[in-house]
Amino acid sequence: MSTPSWDDYALHVRPRPATNAVGATTWFNWTQYLDHGPGTEVLGIGPGADVLDLGCGKGGNLAHIATLGARAVGVDVSAVQLADASRWGEALELHHTER
Questions:
Q1: What is the SS3 assignment for 7?
Q2: Which stretches of 2-99 are DSSP H helices?
Q3: Where would a tag sit more exposed on the chain, N or C end, judged by fewer CB atoms within 10 A?
Q4: Which has more pLDDT, 43 or 33?
């Protein structure tokens, strides 16, 4: 079972661009605005870190975390969002929950 409202959102939201303003294919966004806010340096994440993203959506931020060498685990209530997040491949460990 999935959450209809988040599935509907996933089907209608504008997709994340293939690259950001500096041409990177993965990046971290703090808000819905592209290239807004600080980077992951404020989180202190590096190789060997374990990161859990609750409400990971389509996995864009989590994919960037994985490029830093962290174990990237994402959980979301939307099966549609997670299906899209699977495009990032084996770098992400994704889990669906109903709550």
A1: helix
A2: 4-12, 60-67, 79-85
A3: C
A4: 43
